[in-house]
Amino acid sequence: MSAVEDRIAQLGLSLPETATPAGVYVPAVHTGRYVYTAGQLPLVSGTLPTTGKVGAEVTPEEAKELARTAALNALSAVKSVTGDLDRVARVVKVTGFVASAPDFTGQPGVINGASELLGEVLGDKGVHARSAVGVAVLPLDAPVEVEIQVELTD
Questions:
Q1: How does strand 34-37 pair with strand 28-31?
Q2: Tell me: the pLDDT tens digits for 7-16?
Q3: DSSP readout, 21-50?
Q4: E strands within the chain?
Q5: Could you say which DSSP state residue 135 is in?
Q6: Tally: H helices and E strands in the chain
Q7: Distance CA 8, CA 10 (A)
Q8: pTM
């Protein structure tokens, strides 16, 4: 097990199996020193734990936890094309999408869940640039979706 996966286990978490794509795409692409993930939903064993809009059916606190799960799924996608999360030199960018009720403006707080998880797992390598975007709806009525881009070591 890699040092990153050891850290995930120390946090009481486990790296899930990479989610099967819901369309015509792959979970991650490795090109040169970079890996780009597709948007990752907060699936747990292939199922969304909750659905709906943040600020309506889903609380910001619940959505923040879902963003953590989506970030963990993104790390799984990175491992699926690199074989080893210890190859991550740094997380470069996180883009988080939040299915939002019309008056909800707390998208950054929700996506902090993903950012915090990456920091807990990767330390300084998890510090990244980020966008947190409110959207009308996400696939499968998911409350959040997270994609990451990482740079790899040689």
A1: antiparallel
A2: 999 999 999 9
A3: PSSSS-SEEEETTEEEEPPB---BTTB-S-
A4: 28-31, 34-37, 88-99, 129-135, 144-152
A5: E
A6: 3, 5
A7: 5
A8: 0.97
